[in-house]
Design brief:
It is rod-shaped and about 205 Å long. The chain starts with a helix and ends with a strand. By secondary structure, it is α+β, with helices and mostly antiparallel strands. Helix 2 packs antiparallel against helix 4. It is 42% helix and 28% strand. The strands form eight sheets. It has a four-stranded antiparallel sheet, with no helix packed on it. Strand 10 and strand 11 form a beta hairpin.
């Protein structure tokens, strides 16, 4: 293989690679082709002068060989001619030549010397030509090796190109897939945008419907309140007419009784005096045994309270009933209905004629004990009502609820006289002599209110670390006892509004958010229930627990009431059971 053919083959291979790369039209193939062209130029250009010199030497060698052949033929032809040329018959040297012994002509020495020199010169040139030929052959061999290396590099470059082509195809396929995925995602995005637009329209429509529903609800609520107010007015009017009829009947009875004998009147007076004297007798012993256990309600019992004479006690429940019991015998007196939802608290009027139940249906109801029917339905709170009490003259009632307000009501007419915003949900309240109201709240504060001015007199902030469950005022009005879910009972002085004593015990744990304590009539002891069914009796003087009543309750105790006659405690729990302790 000569260099020209090698160069042509390399050029053809290079052109073929270039065509492959151009055919593919890829950046990687073009870079490989450019790299191969640059390497070809670097490895081929230095051999071009060598190849030209080799061609010249070959040409000179060929000319030298031709010249030697000519000289050899000339020498061979000149020797016979000299042997047969005419001779002068003389021997030795002379100008005309030299004669051989046979008398023939001979070649002169100068010619021979010249020919020998020429032969040596030609031999040297031939030797140099052989050397040059060997060098050229070695250079040609090196060029062949280089060409072989270039061929291998070209083969490797073609393999790289094929691999690059395959990789490019894979990348092209992946690019097509990604392009297709992008188109799919764009289509999905367009669809989601369309759905989002539709959902926004639906949301706007739903918001409009909600606003319309809220307006409708507000209108219905206003109409409902108006209707309830009208019903309350009608009920009050009916009660007024009924009271007038009853008054007329009593007048008639009085007129008829005036005709009775004086002896009978004296006997009745003696009987009344005896009953009053019996009621005034008080037992100051601390109850220690469970006298009766009553299943008072079908559901959870939420509150218990004695009336002011100690002859009755009432219980409320989530079965929507208020149950009146005879405190002396432990028997049921009556069951009062009318609540729509759970009754959370109960209170008697000081004249023992009325009983009030507060409910989670955002209202309070006042029943007549003697008639057993609802006299007033006190509506106006915007959330659950948890607390209620009568004023000392039984003419007004105070309620507190989760709408963060206190309301003062006219008991005779059932009207709301004033609303006081208290800043936190009210769990319990109590009243003293128509002047001071104390309330316990969810934020752990105990607030004192001036009833005459209708404004806050003092606020004991965060006196409890958790919400207040009850506030109970002593009979003399000088102290208020508050209990909280932090399992601590505080005694507040109503004159200075300061906490003067704290009660706690490691065993005492309040089980409900409306756990109410019972205070004896002399404010010497208090009773409160625990979350494991026990009843703790604290000595107010020492501040410690002096007695723990046996666990007759199977669930947490929710309220306790101490009879104003002394000697009796009534407790209720979340199972609906009531225990009378003697």
């Amino acid at each position: 293989m000569n260099p020209t053919s090698s160069s042509l083959a390399g050029s053809q291979s290079h052109s073929q690679l270039s065509r492959i790369q151009v055919g593919n039209g890829l950046t990687v193939g073009a870079q490989v082709a450019n790299a191969l062209r640059a390497r070809d130029r670097l490895q081929r250009d230095p051999f071009r002068p060598l190849l030209r010199e080799y061609a010249a030497l070959a040409h000179r060698l060929e000319a030298s060989e031709t010249r030697c052949a000519q000289l050899e033929r000339s020498s061979a032809s000149s020797a016979p001619s000299a042997a047969h040329s005419p001779s002068s018959g003389l021997s030795g040297s002379g100008t005309g030549g030299t004669l051989s012994s046979s008398g023939g002509p001979v070649v002169s020495n100068d010619v021979i010397i010249h020919l020998e020199q020429r032969i040596r010169q030609l031999e040297q040139e031939l030797t140099q030509s052989y050397k040059a030929s060997a060098e050229n052959a070695q250079a040609l061999l090196d060029a062949g090796r280089t060409h072989t290396a270039l061929q291998e590099a070209l083969t490797e470059a073609k393999a790289d190109a094929r691999r690059s082509d395959a990789l490019a195809k894979v990348q092209q396929t992946r690019s097509d897939q990604l392009r297709q995925e992008l188109e799919d995602l764009q289509s999905t995005l367009a669809l989601l945008k369309a759905e989002l637009g539709a959902l926004r329209l639906e949301l706007a429509s739903a918001q409009q419907q909600r606003e319309s529903a809220l307006r409708r609800y507000e209108e219905l609520e206003a109409r409902w309140i108006q209707m309830k107010t009208q019903e309350a007015e009608q009920l009050n009017e009916a009660n007024r007419l009924f009271e007038e009829v009853k008054a007329r009947e009593r007048k008639m009875e009085i007129l008829q009784g005036a005709e009775s004998s004086t002896g009978e009147a004296r006997a009745a007076l003696a009987t009344t005096s005896s009953a009053v004297a019996s009621a005034m007798r008080q037992d100051h012993t601390i109850p220690s045994r469970a006298w009766k256990i009553l299943t008072a309600h079908r559901g959870e019992c939420t509150a218990v309270q004695h009336n002011f004479s100690g002859s009755l006690f009432a219980t409320t429940s989530n079965d929507k009933t208020l149950h009146l019991w005879d405190a002396r015998t432990g028997t049921s007196r009556s069951v009062l209905h009318g609540a729509v939802q759970t009754l959370m608290g109960v209170a008697f009027s000081p004249n023992d004629e009325l009983v009030m139940g507060v409910s989670t249906d955002n209202s309070a109801r006042i029943w007549s004990i003697s008639q057993g029917r609802v006299l007033h339905n006190l509506t106006g709170h915007l959330n659950k009502v948890y607390a209620g009490r009568f004023s000392g003259d039984s003419t007004r009632a105070i309620t507190g609820g989760y709408d963060r307000s206190l309301k003062i009501w006219d008991v005779r007419r059932g009207y709301c006289l004033r609303t006081i915003l208290c800043g936190s949900s009210c769990n319990d309240l109590d009243i003293q002599d128509n002047q001071l109201v104390v309330s316990g709240h969810m934020d752990g504060a105990v607030r004192f209110w001036d009833l005459k001015r209708g404004e806050k007199a003092h606020e004991a902030k965060e006196v409890h670390s958790k919400q207040v469950t009850c506030t109970v005022m002593s009979r003399d009005g000088q102290a208020v006892f508050s209990c909280g879910r932090d399992n601590v009972i505080h005694m507040h002085d109503t004159r200075t509004y300061q906490v003067v004593k704290t009660f706690s015990d490691s065993r005492f744990r309040s089980g409900v958010n409306w756990n109410r304590l019972g205070l004896d009539v002399n404010s010497e002891h208090l009773a409160i229930g625990g979350n494991e069914g026990e009843v703790f009796i604290f000595d107010i003087g020492t501040g410690g627990v002096i007695k723990t009543l046996d666990k007759k309750h199977v669930k947490p105790v929710s309220a306790c009431s101490w009879s104003p006659l002394g000697g009796q405690i009534v407790s209720c729990d979340r199972s609906g059971s009531v225990v009378i302790w003697q």
